[in-house]
């Protein structure tokens, strides 16, 4: 089956699974470390989300105290963003795939890579541990002052320290990706021959390096306000809380692209393989990513239209934000054109990837709507924003993560995931997700505020629908978890290249040997050359 | 399986030897780190300038600072960049002993900067929590001072490694180049800081 791809199938190294718990510098081990760690925190964040939806199943506050509800929603946001989405969509797939894509045997700085990973478990444990040392942070994942200055200080400080660790990990990872993609490419491999995920990771890493340090500095200032009683962000002490919002969103808007650009890249790898067609509009895809990186850095104040921003600022940020729809729309239509007329295989990876396109365009449309000042002021801090955000990060990125797991699981393990279980997982996730977050658009437009555990009884039905959807999403993880464990031992043996893909990670054994290729790295000029060249 | 891989898109074995070993891009990585570090400063500068533009100065406060000491400090740091450069050049010329002398001079200049800044801190009429302006002043100069302190430590390490028989010599001197790049960065940040905080 793999006579040319891997002329001498490599017998798999007999290293024990202990290496996954060690300070390994192998990019593939580190990638899987990120993936499994991230998934653990996904389950933690999911339990927290379940507690939120349980509380909101009734209009009165009957399940959690107000303080506990605040803690739960803060932890849910922080865990899901900093410990699940960012590490997995960047750290896990980035570390596993980017060295293959540039034709290298490891990342540019392997030890730095391991350091970056091993900053994450302590940060996560610290965050969860803050529950047990006087209560977790209650000020939401945005930690806006003056709220974050008046809520219990211990939890807030642990939160700050944890996020600083995670941000540091992210910066070290970003430096590594930029150096790997720009400097470690196999000789002769041109930038415009790289698989799209490399471009996505390059753009993402530029955002990480430019914006994450600003968040770190801001949180250091916030910590000074809490510990030393400086008054940077405290109006009572002559400070300015809006400056915090500017600095925070200078990171946290690009953070949305840090979470979604890699997903764009991953889906651009998955669609051509299962549609058996070249990726449509490669060049426009590349320039769209670069445009999103640039625009993503100059739109942050659209989160602050109700923070007393002057009219000229509102005008600028509305226009800049609306412009992002152009490169994003280009990518959307390119994905559709990639599918168009393809020989589409309907499997779990493809189901999740196509659902991503649907969910993401819905989240994108509400995003453009939110960029318009009059509408934004109407729905600011309501469930409409919650719905929009989850359509982007869950309907967008998390769907792509699941798609990627189905796509690359044979690469990781040499075995296929079970397809019927995958389809069940997809149906439960897709229905549950839309049932959970779809009604929240209606709730938001009709005025239900977010981050409050009680609501007007007129919103009861829609909230209960949403909670049923959340229950379906919780159930959907069961077939997935069973599938992943079962298939690791009993799954159908996949062979080296079950999808007959052309990207370089498939041109070696599955799972790959320690240094990726037995011989020299293959030179892949056309990673999407399906049907372009006559089969040999 | 064979037939599915377009023959022209995959070539095996044509580059044997090319990929074994690669260039040293640790300085490139350090440069990226300094970009990130510079963005932290940029955030602080942006906060400082916004505070100054938007928030009223507290009663009795003033943006005016004594300039003599900071000006001397600026000269110390700028000169130290040149002495470090001389040190690196001496090492490349193969004169390790002369290199270490220039490094020690750089350390002395850095330490003098720190001592001078401590003296300035103790003679200022305001403390960390006196008002918004004072807090931001100490944040910016303190964060920069921390960088200078780390730089002095780095140079001392490099000075030790550059001894006869040490790991840094005229053939292998990444540590020295990295410390030099970092030191120039810290110097450059100070010039910006001096302009914004003291002169503006």
Structural class of chain A: mainly alpha
Please identify the structural class of chain B as seen in this structure: mainly alpha
CATH class placement of chain A: Mainly Alpha
Would you tell me which CATH topology of chain A applies?
Answer: Cytochrome C Oxidase, Chain A
> Main sheet of chain A, how many strands, which sense, barrel?
none
CATH topology of chain B: Four Helix Bundle (Hemerythrin (Met), subunit A)
Please name the fourth-level CATH homologous superfamily of chain B: Cytochrome c oxidase, subunit III, four-helix bundle
Note the run of SSEs of chain A as H and E: HHHHHHHHHHHHHHHE
State the separation between the terminal residues of chain A, measured CA to CA: 15 Å
3D shape of chain A: globular
Name the chain pair whose interface involves the most residues.
Answer: A-B, 65 and 50 residues
Strand content of chain B: under 5%
Characterize the structure shown.
The complex is a heterodimer of chains A (536) and B (200). Chain A has helices at 27-55, 66-101, 110-118, 120-129, 147-150, 153-183, 196-227, 241-275, 282-296, 311-339, 348-371, 373-379, 383-413, 419-445, 460-490, and one strand at residues 523-524. Chain A has 536 residues and is mostly helical. Chain A has one domain (27-506): Cytochrome C Oxidase, Chain A (Up-down Bundle). The longest helix of chain A is centred in the first third of the chain and has 36 residues, at 66-101. Chain A is globular and about 65 Å long. With 200 residues, chain B is mainly alpha-helical. Chain B contains 5 helices and 1 strand, in the order βααααα. Chain B has helices at 26-54, 68-92, 96-123, 132-161, 174-199; one strand at residues 10-11. The longest helix of chain B is centred in the last third of the chain and has 30 residues, at 132-161.
